[in-house]
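Pilot study result, target chain (273 residues):
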Amino acid sequence: MAGLFQVLYGKPDGKFGKAEVLNGTDGKPLIIPADREHIVDAICTRPFAVDWNGDGHLDLVVGNFKGTFYWFRGEGKGAFHPEPEPIRLGAELLHIQGYHSDPFAIDWDGDGDLDLVSGSAQGGVQWAENVAGAGKLPELRAFQWLIKPVQESQKGEDEEPQDIDVVTEDGLTGPTKSTRVWVADVNGDGKLDLLVGDSLTLIAPADGLTVAAMKQKSAEWKKRYAAAVKELEAAQDDEQRSKVQEKFSKIYEQRTEFLKEDDTGFVWLYLQK
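Predicted structure:
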């Protein structure tokens, strides 16, 4: 979460050493640049090792919370130039549709050059086509959807609550939010397939309650919650705000009286036709 990259160096016996911070050739940790007002932009969501510029050395293509991308130029033997370069779409930064970019570099369209596939906080899978040609520094087009998100992300404690409904494993039709992607020929047919991990919350009635009873209690709870939100917004000073926040938190915890939540995730397989 701090934005540092770490590496576990392999040993001859197949085991790995302890995680070590990956430094640049200047001896300092590799970090995505960000100013104080946008410090979360420096938080890496995924590093991907690939020869991005075609010079025979592994580079690092990295994503961040903002949804943009950078790459650290490899200098051979595991060394990297300390200053990353932004990946651009023309004069602008290349940006996924959403946040939390998740780079996977692969020749998705089979034309010999590296394209970019990504998951996102909002879900789904996107890809940006490379039009530069093989062996050249990629020139990417805007991201387009390979798999669109199947449902809106659930909202958190400090946001307006949605109507609560049962969410079961059997009722899922595809990956939801916080998707992470891996591309491989899973079934050996010569075509690239997609493995997509996600994050979601399964919801069921509390023990002893029917679905109808859960929904009724949920509707009553939502009114109390909405009133607490307004009260919190109207608080005039820190002392009053602290008291209301305590009340607000207790109301939120009352959800456990009528529902059970299981924070989990699944891996979905999409076989290319």
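One observation from the pilot: The helical segments are 211-234, 238-253. A full batch analysis is planned for the follow-on phase.
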